[in-house]
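Worked example 3 (structure in, sequence out).
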């Protein structure tokens, strides 16, 4: 799935989920795109792998891929506060994300792509890295057994 603009980011002092946050529109844009990609399916309860690719002229001041990945995970799971409640869309809790890849690629416009893999059996590492790209990896993928699915959600992968 592809979303225009910069992704939501993790910020401890003011939650991006709060409608008063100045970048709340990023949170809403990703949730709407994820709802569309999930096509009414229930969120996943097992292990999840995420791949986030950011295309932009540069990073926003004070932000890095780990900030964006944290914001994306907070947007896709469920949460509540004193003034808001959000049901999960893709997964129940970000602790389910046991593998993640982030990539940055220079581009004249800001946009990002996101792919989620549910109930994976293996981790496939891309065999190329663009010289202008920044790559980070975290987590460990383990088989999820009989919960594997063959659903195809467009840019979202369900193996």
């Amino acid at each position: 799935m592809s979303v225009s603009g910069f992704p939501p980011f993790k910020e401890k002092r003011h939650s991006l989920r709060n409608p008063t946050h100045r970048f709340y529109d990023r949170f809403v844009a990703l949730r709407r795109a994820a709802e569309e990609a999930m096509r009414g399916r229930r969120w996943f309860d097992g292990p999840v792998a995420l791949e986030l690719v950011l295309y932009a002229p540069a990073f926003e001041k004070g932000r890095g891929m780990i900030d964006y990945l944290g914001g994306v995970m907070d947007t896709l799971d469920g949460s509540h506060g004193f003034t808001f409640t959000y049901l999960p869309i893709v997964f129940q809790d970000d602790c389910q994300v046991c593998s993640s890849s982030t990539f940055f690629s220079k581009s004249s416009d800001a946009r990002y792509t996101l792919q989620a893999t549910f109930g994976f059996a293996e981790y496939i590492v891309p065999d190329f890295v663009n010289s202008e790209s920044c790559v980070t990896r975290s987590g460990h993928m383990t088989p999820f057994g009989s919960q594997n699915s063959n659903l195809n959600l467009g840019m979202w992968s369900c193996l």
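Notes: The beta strands are 2-4, 48-56, 79-80, 85-86, 97-106, 111-118, 134-139, 152-153, 156-158. The chain has one domain: 2-158.
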